[in-house]
Amino acid sequence: MTYQEEKLLFNQKTQCIVVDHDGTIEETDAVIFEWKVGTSIYNAHPFFEIIKDFIEVFEKEETIYNFPCIHLEDGEIQKICDVTIKINSEKVVILLFDYTTKYYELNKIAQQKNESILKAKELELKNQYLLEKEKFKNSFISNINHEIRTPLTGILGFIEVLEKTNLNFEQEELARIIKRQSLHLNSLIEDMVDISKIESGKIKIIEERFLFVNLVEGFKETYTKLAEDKEIAFETYIDPNIQEYLIGDRTRVFQILNNILNNAFKFTEEGKISLSVTKNYQRTNKLSISFKIEDTGLGIQKENLDTIFDRFTRFNEDRQISGTGLGLAIVKDLVDLLGGEIKVTSEPEKGTTFDVKLPFKFEITKSTPEKKKKKYSLPESKKKFRILVVEDEEATQFLIMKILISHGSFFVDVAINGEEAISYIERRNYDLVLMDLKLSKIDGYKATHMIRNNYGDKVISEVPIIGFTAKSGEIEREKCLRAGMDDFIAKPFEQEDLIYKIVKQIAKKAAS
């Protein structure tokens, strides 16, 4: 485009209007609006009424006024203009600059920007809602976990007590059914808690040195008995070239294999199940191990294989097989957390094979014997040891009293909250305190802190304290120890474990 063409294009968007002090148009090029010479500018558009005010205050020297983005219209012609008004003693000059297209573009950009801001705000609010929803869900699961575990502790505990009494065959069978269903309920709770922890990123991978062969032997011991009950075969194989001690998260590896094996036993009614463990590869101090679990069970339809690891996915609904549909979802999440791989192949009515590859490390050192659980015994005493049980659930109170009194070495007092526990401790000497953490008035943590810090009498301030609660896990244990407790036991607990921890703390206190 030539200079003249460029200038002409610019001129087409500029209009100059000259009016006298009365507002009569004397000259105009009528490029934008066709206002006639001799007509009043005040009749052209109401905006120009402001010129009257400018003329009234005019004082000899020429004055210029600028007005951006003025909407002017004349009939069907509508424009957005920048307006310049110049006033001197003889006349008024009005310059119109047509920026209609530019202002529409700017408005569009501003609108897009506003929409972008609104969308960002909407996304922020959605994320906030999801975070609050996740927080509520985790809190709900945590509370449900606690509320269910407390009565479940009583059920499992009393079943153990019942099993040690003289039962006839029918009563023994009923007790076994109650115990089996209670353990199943406990496993369902564990699944919900694990999914919640995985989603919230609270599961941490812990690398520790452990005796690898014992892990596989543990499965052999547990599932061989189950296989005998179902009248199917269970076979295990472990590659002799795998190092005796490995470094990895033993708990998560156990959980992965246990969930898959448990699933295999659910869906296999005849034939066999096998667990094969082989070395995949080894480089310096790192190695990959393959775990293959095969069964001759119901199998999985081909169209369902892609969703087998989805949460709450259950197949063979007509078979009345129990479960939450979370087991394999947990397996996949844990395998991913460990940096491993998992594949599944299956043929309906013939069986399913799970292939899991997991990474481990190992130390090039001589093997050391596995650390065994140290034995403790109660100090010699002519009198029984006195235990204070701080617990507000009546069923749990009765269960612990039954366990301790049946042992024959303990007297038991019961306090229903931290405040009452403090009162008991001030009046009577105790050899150990079993302290529930979730109590009314004064909770277990605060009561422990008061016992440890508010008394000069060492019989009170140094009494062994074992915390127990329905909230299981390493985090809860660490909180107990930081509060001043000597040990921790999670509900539901086994009687032998409870007695072991009590004897251990009393023996350690006597030896100090």
Automatic annotation (TrEMBL):
InterPro entries from the UniProt entry: CheY-like_superfamily, HATPase_C_sf, HATPase_dom, His_kinase_dom, HisK_dim/P_dom, HisK_dim/P_sf, Sig_transdc_His_kin-like_C, Sig_transdc_resp-reg_receiver
Residue span, Response regulatory domain: 386-506
PTM-bearing positions, type 4-aspartylphosphate: D436
Any Pfam family hit: HATPase_c
Catalytic activity entry: ATP + protein L-histidine = ADP + protein N-phospho-L-histidine
Presence of keyword ATP-binding: no
Record's keyword terms, sorted: Kinase, Phosphoprotein, Transferase
EC number: 2.7.13.3
Top-level taxon in the UniProt lineage: Bacteria
GO MF, any single term: kinase activity
Domain (Histidine kinase) ranges: 143-362
Matches recorded under SMART domains: HATPase_c, HisKA, REC
Record protein name field: histidine kinase
Organism listed in the record: Aquimarina rubra
